[in-house]
Here is the input.
Amino acid sequence: MSIFDRSPQARTAALLSPPFLYSLLLLALPLVAIVLISFWTQTGLDFDTTFTLANYRAIFTQPQYILGNAQNWGVIPVSLFVSATVTAITVVLAYPVAYFVSFVVDPSRKSLWLFLITIPFWSSYLIRVFLWKVILGFNGVINTGLQALGVIREPLEFLLYNLASVIITMAHAYAVFAILPIYVALEKIDRSLLEASQDLGESRFSTFLRVTLPLSVPGIVGAVLIVFIPTIGDYVTPQLMLGAGGRLVANTIQTQFFKGNDAPLGAALSIVTMLMVGIISLVFLFLNRRWLRGRS
Amino acid sequence: MNVQSKPPATPLIQLRGIHKHYGDYHALRGIDLEIRQGEFFSLLGPSGCGKTTLLRTIAGFEQPSSGQLVIDGKDMSGVPPNHRPTNMVFQSYAIFPHLTVAENVGFGLRRDPRPKEQRARAVAEALEMVGLGGYGNRAAHALSGGQRQRVALARALILKPKVLLLDEPLSALDKKLRENMQVELIRLQRNVGITFILVTHDQEEALVMSDRIAVMFEGAIGQMADPETLYRRPNSRRVAEFIGKMNLLPAEVGMEGNRIVVEVAGLGRGAVEPDQAPGGVIEGNSTVGIRPETLSLLFPGETTDRRVAEGVVDEVVYYGDMTYYDVRIPGVEEPLTISMKNLIGRPVLDVGTPTKVAWDERSLVVLSR
Amino acid sequence: MMRGGWLRAYALLYLVFLFAPILLLPLFAFNDASVIAFPLTGFTTHWFQELWTTEALHQALRNSLVIAVLNSLIATLLGVCAARATSGPAFPGKRGILGFIMLPLVLPEIVIAVSLLVVVRQVLDLQLSNVTVILAHVVISLPFSIAILNGAFANLDPAFEEAAQDLGETRWGAFRLVTLPLVFPGIISSLLICFIISLDDFVLAQFLTGANPTLPVYIYGLTRFVKSLPVIMALGTLLVALSITLLVIAEYFRRRGVARAGLKDSGGFL
Here is the structure.
C-alpha cells in the first residue's frame, strides 16, 4: 500500500515534498552556507574555517560600507536611499494606473490592459537597462533628439552617470511589481461600499480618501515590499548606469565574489544588507499595522 | 407523503458503530443504521452534524476511523469509490466543464464493454429519462442550475448503481424549481427502483420525499423514523424544534400506575398515552410539546368539547392561507403559537383581542430529553 | 469629457513610458549608423546579418535555449506538484513550506546567486556549467510557475475528481481525464513563462555559468564595446519579439483555460 492510499493530508504532503526538497537543497542550504561562510576567512582559494567576526567588524567600522566619511556616504545607506526613492516613485506613479484599470476600464478589457502593462516586464531586463543607458547617454537618444530638434545646443550631462539615472531605470523596471498588488487590492473592494459612502453624503473624492484608499492599503504595502526588497540586490543597473565610478551595495557584493576574491566578506555584506532590508520592511509593516488598528 | 408499501427486503446497507475522527474532532459518534433495498432514505440535520461525512463514508471518500460498512452483503473497508456500487450527485453537481452534456453522462461508461452505438443509445436514454433529450451536444458550462442537476442525475443513474447518494442536490435551486424537482425525484426513484440516500438540512424536503429519515445532531442519530412519526412523535426537544414549529411548555410529569400524567403550567392537568412519550418518561420537571396546528382559537360564536384556556392575542403574522397567532395565557411563560386556516368568514384578529384557545391532551408530546 | 478622462490620459502616458525603450529597439536596429543617436540616417538589415554570421552568438543562443527548455520543464513539473498540494487539504506546516518555496519572489536575486555559488563551488565542489545555471533558474522560476498554476488549480471544484472516481475511474484516471485537461492551459502558460524567465536571466547566469556563456551573459560582454551597440539593438529586437510572441501564446492559453472552465475572466498573470 503506497502513501497515496492513505489520508488526503498524507497525499498532499507527498505531492509537496519534491518542490520542498528542491527548495531545501537549492535555497535553504545555500542560505545557511552563506551565513556560515560569513564567519570564515578567505585564504587564497580556500577558507580558514575558524569562527571570526572580522568580516562584520570590517563592515561596521570601515567607512566605505556603512559609516561613510565627509565626502561620501557608505555604500549601504546610499543603496537603501536609492531603493527607498525608487519604491516611493514607483508606487506613487503606479497607483493611479492600478486605480484606472480597476475602476474605470470596462471589465471586458481589463485583462487586455493588464497584459499590456506586463509585456515590458517580460522582455529582457538586461536589454531594458541597456536601452535606458542608450536613451539617457551623453550621445544618447534624448540628447541627440533634443539637439536635432534644436531645443538644446550642448548635450545635457546630468542624465547619465548619476543616481537619478539609476532611479529612473529601476522605476521603469519595477513598475509592474507595483501595479499588480495594488490592482488586486482595488479589485477586492466591494463596489457597493463606494455607493454606500456616497449615499451617506460623501463626495466622489472624499469617498476615495475615506473608503477606497484605506481599503487598498494592503495592496500598497505589498507593492512597497515587492519593489523595495529586490531593488536593493540589483547590480546590473548601477553597473551600466553609473559607469566605473559609482557603486551600490550589490556591486560591492558582486566584486567580492569575483575580482575581490573575498567570498566571506561578500557573504557578510549580503547578510548585513538582507538584515537591514528585513528590519526596515518589518518596521514598515509594524507601523502600518498600528496605523490601521488605530483607525479601526 | 411517500409512505407506500414496499416489498419486505433484507437490508441493502448496514452501518455498524461507525466512528470518524479528524484529529480531535469527533465527526461521527457511533452510527448504526440499516437501509433497505428500494428505500428513499434521508439524512437530515443542521450543518456540521456529520450527515455529509456519513454520506461520503458510504461513497468511499472518507474512511471510517472504526466500525463496519456493508453494502449488498460486501464489507466495504478498503474498497475505493470507483469499486463501490454507489454513485453520487454532488452538491455542486461537479459537471465536467470541458466536456459536452453527452460526454458527461457517458463518463462512467469508458470501461463498458458494449459497442459505441449502444453506449450512445444508453446516454440518449438517460438524458431522455431526466427530461434532457436532445441536449447531448450542449457545452456543459452553458447549462442552468436545474439542467446541471439533471445531467448529474443521468450521469450517476446510467451506471445502474445499487445506491444513489444525493448530497443536498436541491440546495442550489430556487424555491419553485426546488419544489418541482422534489416531485420529479420521487417519481424517478419509484421508476428506477434504486435506493436513494439524500442528505439535506431542509426538514420540509426530507418530510416530502423520504420513506424514512434519520435526524442527526453532533455526529449521532437523534431519531430515525418515517416522516409522520418524526413529525408527530419526536423523541427529544432537539428533534421537535428542528422539524416544524413546536410550542414547548414546562410541565410536571408523573406516573400514576401505568398512566402518564402531565401538569402543564397555565393549561392544566391531563393524561397521555405511552406512545406520546417516544423518548421515555423522566418523572418530575419536564417539557411537553404541542404543534401550532393542533391548537385552535375559538372565534366568537364557536364552541368546542375540547379543553379551553383564555388568553390575549399578542402577535399576528398573516401568511395568506394561514394566520399564526401568538396568544398570551396567564400562567404560561411564553406565548403559545397557534396556526389557523383562513377560512371564508373567519376574521383575522387584532393584537390585544381577548380570545380562547382550544387544546387537547392527545396532541401533547412528552419531551423529557 | 468622458469618465476618467484625466486618469485615462495618465494611464496612456504611463504605457508610453513603459514601452518607450522597447519601441526604440527596432528603430535603431534598422538604422544605418553605428552610433545610437538621432537623427536616423537610413534603413539597413546589416546588423541582423551580422547576428547571422557570429558563431559565438549562436553558441550562446543554443546554450540559452537548452537551459530554458530544461528549466521550464523541471520548474513546471515541480510547480504542478506544489499547486496541486496548495489546493489540497491542509496539514501541519503546509503554509510554511509553500511560503518558503515562494521566497525567491522577494529575495534579492544577488543573494540567491552568491549563496548558490558558494554551495556549488565550496560545499558541493562542482564545476560551473549549464547544469548549475538550470538548477538556479528553477529556483527563481518555481514561484512564478506555482503562481500561474495555482490560478488554474484553484478554479477546480474539488468534487470534479471525486465525481470521476465515483463514476469508476481510479485516482490517476480521474486526474488524467478531468484535472489535467482543465489545468492544461495553465501548464502551457507556466512552461512559456518559465522559458522566458530563464532566457532573460542575467544575474544568476553570470554567477553560475561555466565555460559557455548564456545569451544575456554574451550580450553583457558586448555592451562594453561601443561599436557593437547596433548589433545589440538587433539582437534585442529579436529577443523582445520572441518574448512577446511567447507571452501572447501564454495569454491565449490562459484565457482559453478560463473559458473552458466556464469562468469569468479576472485578468492577468500572477
In short: Chain C touches chain A through 89 residues (CB under 8 Å). Chain C has two domains: 1-44, 55-260.
